[in-house]
Amino acid sequence: MPTNKPAQPAGSAPSRYYRLYTLDSEHHIVDVREIRAAGDLEAINQVGDANSGLARELWCGERRIVELPGFPVSD
């Protein structure tokens, strides 16, 4: 049975969908960013090192890839 998925270019790795959650000090989600990457390391590289002082978690499906702790931001 045919599917409506777009074909992957020859030689390219299939993309996975990741979610980057930003958490407040009580660990409530305050922001979500979707990331598409070929693998975990590429997704982590896309996260970058920019941080607003809040903790972040990178997930792929039910699997937590990495937890990035927040740090206090001085005024």
Outline the structure in words:
With about 80 residues, the protein is mainly beta. The termini are far apart. The radius of gyration is 15 Å and the shape is elongated. The chain has one helix and four strands; from the N terminus they run ββαββ. It has one domain. The mean pLDDT is about 85. The chain is about 10% helix and about 40% strand.
List the topology elements.
Blueprint: E1 16-23, E2 29-37, H1 40-47, E3 55-60, E4 63-68
Antiparallel strand pairs: 1-2, 1-3, 3-4
Q: Any idea what the shape is?
A: elongated
Q: What structural category arises from helix and sheet content?
A: mainly beta
Counting copies of identical and different chains, the oligomeric state is single chain
Based on CA atoms alone, the radius of gyration comes out at 15 Å
Gist of the model:
The chain is mainly beta and 75 residues long.
Task: Considering the chains and any ligands shown, give keywords for the structure.
75 residues; mainly beta; four-stranded antiparallel β-sheet; 1 helix; elongated
